[in-house]
Amino acid sequence: MVRKKNKMKKEEIAEDWCFECMDGGKLRVCDYRGCLKAYHPDCVGKDDSFLEDNSHWTCRSHFCHRCGKTSKFWCLCCPNAVCRNCTNLGEFAVVKGRKGFCRHCSKLAFLIEENAGVDSDGENVDFKDRETYECLFSEYYEIIKKKEGLNSQHVQSARNFLKNSKNKSDLDLDEIAEVEGDSGESEDGSDFEVSEKTQNCLAAIVSSNLKLVYLKRSLLEELLKQPENFDSKVCGSFVRIKSDPNNNLQKNSHLLVQVKGINRSSQNDENNKEILLQLSHVPKDVPICKISDDDFTEEECQDLYQRMRNGLLKQPTKLELEQKARSLHEDIIKHWIPRELAFLQNRIDWANEKRQRRKLSEYLDKRTELENQQEQARLLRNIPRVIPEDKLDSDGCSSKHNGLGQCPNKRADIAGLPVENDIDPSDLMTQILAIQEQRKQKVDHDVEQAKDQENDLTTLVADGTGKQHGAPDSGATDIRRLTTKLTDAEQERDKLAEKVGILEEEVVSLKTKCSTAEAFATSAAAAFEEKKKEAEILLEKNESAESSLEAKKKEVDNLKSLLLRAAEGAFDNAVNQLRILNPGLNIEGAASNRVAREGQICHVKEGKFIPCPDVHPPE
Predict the structure, then answer these.
(1) Residue 477: helix, strand or coil by DSSP?
(2) What is the pLDDT of residue 132?
(3) Which of 128, 126, 22, 153 is nearest to 76 (CA)?
(4) Phi, psi (rounded to 5 degrees) for 600
(5) DSSP 425-469
(6) How far is CA 180 from CA 346, 385, 588, in A?
């Protein structure tokens, strides 16, 4: 209950715009402590159910976008972030504290400060069209600029730093990883020769390692087409299944488990339902149809590592995981490429609909690169690399994983690309440390210089003119100028206070109008209920009147039939009396044609009623 209340309070104070596209709407707030950034489900590759999902989710600003480690520096205007080692690779400029600009946001901020409409590439940039990403970025930048106390000098320094470091960042981490990977394999394609220490080294249980041996349901179904290699490839890999709903200790909806064996029934082996997987610490064998076809989460990865630490599951060594990763590498790549192309096409359609130029260009470039046959061949040739657990310790990461903050949140890792966490070239680290030391010395020098200037100004203020301490006559002028600025600032503050007072009065007026509107709405609702009740009463009266009218109609019909029978009886009596009074009167045949009609004795002739004047009904 306390956690839910804290989450609701965090959502109330979080940002009202998406940190990816800068637009408003239905947003999901990052669950990382202290993070108030919010995102659209579409912007993070999720569906609408993501808004109601109660599982823990961390946005990508807490991971380095280059190597996937825990980020130390964050971009002010987008989720891009870098770790300490990747700060000086020419893609990020620190401005204040641990915050700064990535290359793209620095360019847009520079154009806003310069009030320019054309970027360095010659493309037109419209900061006034509300349908463009640039306009939403400019609005967000103005908010962040006031909040963080930025000015044009910060933007200019970041722009200059990135421009000067562009030519210095020629070291490509992917190329370094490929060089390191090539050095470990012989020309004939034989396996690595590893020492006894490397063989016994445990593999780190992080997402970049597990994705190398993680099998989805659709991939298992494709592997069924290779019955001769199915058992050897599947055994030892990891799959994802639903958690036991009766287990109250399990917080995650799914579990990562290892395949221990294959169990086939006596029926057809090619039928998916007849092939059962024997999983670690799962009492019953599980059919392939119950295996998840989605990616696993960081929380599930952490849960797997915790179970291994508790002794419930054996932690694989680096050598074992590498051997299994190499046997599955080609199948995982061929399964991943079409799914990734479909994902990129969906993102392209979304970016085109939202008019996100930067995202659209990025997704188009990725799709074009992935559709290239040479790039696909390169991915297939790449050797999957496994991060050892002691490597995380040497990089300053705790062996307890600290919530798996170093697990990269990048879709490219699933392709088995060389993991950038494993890169440790000594020359590159030496250069980075030297640059960091120079920057530290420069910052210390600037701080000392600022302190000296502050002391000089304090001395000038105390002496009035500044002449007693040998200060130049311009000190008094500086003091007067500062006093003038202070007076102007106080006047500006008074003006802002007046505006705040006016706004408060308007707020009070609006609240009064709202109260009046609510009272009117309440009275209108009460009047409506009264009218509704009156209408119901009238409807009931109408129904009773209709029922009484029907009863009267039935009574009239009954009276008519009674009168008709009475008239016929009277007619017969009259005929009988005529026969008695006038025995010689011939009324045979006429009596049978006479009928009583409206109180007169008539006879029928040619289908018409003709009155008989000489015959009257008896009184």
Answers:
(1) helix
(2) 83
(3) 22
(4) -120, 155
(5) -HHHHHHHHHHHHHHHHHHHHHHHHHHHHHHHHHHHHHHSSSGGG
(6) 35, 10, 136
Angle between helices 318-354 and 373-381 (to 10 degrees): 150
**Token pair 């009168």 in the structure block, residue:** 563
- Give the number of other CB atoms < 10 A from CB of residue 38: 22
Distance CA 567, CA 597 (A): 8
**Domain-located, residue 448:** yes
| CB count in 10 Å sphere of residue 494 | 10
Q: How many CB atoms lie within 10 A of CB 333?
A: 20
The CA distance from 316 to 243, in Å, is 23
Q: Please, are residues 20 and 78 in contact by the beta-carbon 8 Å criterion?
A: yes
Q: Write the CA distances from 569 to 15, 463, 564, 573, 603, integer angstroms.
A: 98, 141, 9, 6, 15
Domain count within the chain: 2
The model's pLDDT over 455-490, given as tens digits with 9 standing for 90+, comes to 666 655 555 544 444 444 445 565 666 777 777 777
Other C-beta atoms closer than 10 Å to the C-beta of 89 total: 19
Pick the closest to residue 397 from 163, 182, 189, 205 (CA basis): 205
Q: Is residue 109 part of a domain?
A: yes
Considering the domain boundaries, does residue 579 fall inside one? Answer: no
Length of the chain: 619
Which of 419, 444, 469 terminates a domain? The answer is 469
For residue 79, how far is the Cα from the chain centroid? 14
Q: Are 370 and 340 in contact (CB under 8 A)?
A: yes
Q: How far apart are CA 484 and CA 479, in angstroms?
A: 9
Nearest to 428 by CA among 175, 157, 70: 175
Whole-number Å distance between alpha carbons of 285 and 263? 8
pLDDT at 162 over 70: yes
Distances from the Cα of 34 to the Cα of 242, 255, 530, angstroms: 31, 28, 53
Which among 103, 132, 165 is the end of a domain?
A: 165
pLDDT recorded at residue 176:
33
pLDDT tens-digit series, residues 567-585 = 888 888 888 888 788 776 6
pLDDT, tens digit, for every residue of 368-405? 989 998 888 888 888 888 888 876 655 444 334 443 43
Distance of CA 67 to the CA centre of its chain: 24
Question: What whole-number distance in Å separates Cα of residue 346 and Cα of residue 181?
Answer: 33
- The whole-number pLDDT of residue 34 equals 83
In a domain, 8, yes or no: yes
If residue 368 lies in a helix (H) or strand (E), which one and from where to where? helix 357-371
Residue 14 belongs to a domain with what CATH number? 3.30.40.10
Can you give the residue range of the structural domain that contains 39? 2-165
- Is 0.90 surpassed by the pTM of this model? no
- Contact (Cβ atoms closer than 8 angstroms) between residue 332 and residue 237: no
What's the distance, CA 493 to chain centroid?
41
What confidence tens digit (pLDDT) does each residue in 126-156 have?
788 878 888 888 888 888 888 888 888 888 8
* Whole-number Å distance between alpha carbons of 298 and 1: 24
DSSP class of residue 314 equals: P
Locate 265 and state its tokens.
């029934």
Q: Copy the structure tokens of residue 71.
A: 């980020």
What are residue 202's DSSP bridge partners? 317
Going along 33-186, which residue ranges are E strands?
38-39, 73-75, 81-82, 92-96, 99-102
